[in-house]
User: What shape does this take?
Amino acid sequence: MANNRNNNSNSNSNSKTKKVVKFRRVKKKVCSICAARIEEVDYKESNYLKRYITDRGKIAPRRMTGLCPKHQRDIAKCIKKARIVGLVPYLVE
Ligand SMILES: [Zn+2]
Assistant: This one.
């Protein structure tokens, strides 16, 4: 019984410390394509597309690119097109 009580008190103190953890400020990400007012992304601009590819050649997720859903879709399409044409690699080793 005494052990249980101790455990409970420990878990309570832990939860209290968790609540005290500093409030994270969330930066508002603005979609870089919307900000640059680019109407359509061109799949032939491989240098531009390479910004949205990870160092292993994968399409970067939205949490990394910070794009809006529409432009993330556009970029993914363009990267896939560019891969077929051979401008962007499928896999980097
Ligand atoms: Zn956008």
